[in-house]
Design brief:
The chain has four helices and four strands, in the order E-H-E-H-E-H-E-H. The protein is α/β, with parallel strands linked by helices. Helix 2 crosses helix 3.
């Protein structure tokens, strides 16, 4: 009996194409075990979160990210630390992909965090990434 592959959505907190964290994610994707499919979420180009945009419909890029997030069984983050937090584009993706309000029930999906380089406060981005995507679906 074959099982369906585990769908994992990977987020890179750095927008630079040659960033160490993007290289880390690409390596992780290449090393994914059999039975796991990893898709890279494209967060560059997302509009800055604005609740007014969510009233009637979501922008196409946000809709795509919501669909990807909803379909994922696991989330993987590779992000640098920026001012003891996560970079603005990743925070924007978190807020925008949840829609107008967070889901009332927390997700049960596993989340994993990695970074390519050391910093002085390693737990801040991990805590934010673990809780920021706590909604299991995008509120539309």
């Amino acid at each position: 009996m074959t099982t369906a592959p585990v769908k994992t959505l990977a987020f890179c907190g750095s927008l630079r194409k040659a960033s160490y964290n993007r290289m880390l994610l690409k390596t992780a994707i290449g090393l994914a075990p059999e039975g796991m499919v990893v898709e890279l979420a494209e967060i560059d180009g997302l509009p800055v979160y604005n609740a007014d945009l969510h009233r009637d419909s979501l922008p196409a890029q946000v809709e795509r990210l919501c669909d990807q997030t909803a379909a994922a069984e696991a989330l993987l983050f590779a992000t640098p630390e920026y001012n003891h937090s996560i970079p603005a584009p990743l925070k924007n993706a978190s807020t925008g992909s949840r829609g107008a309000s967070p889901s009332p029930s927390p997700a049960s999906r596993p989340r994993s965090w990695a970074r390519a380089r050391g910093s002085t406060a390693p737990s801040a981005p991990r805590c934010i990434c673990a809780t920021a995507w706590s909604s299991s679906t995008c509120i539309r």
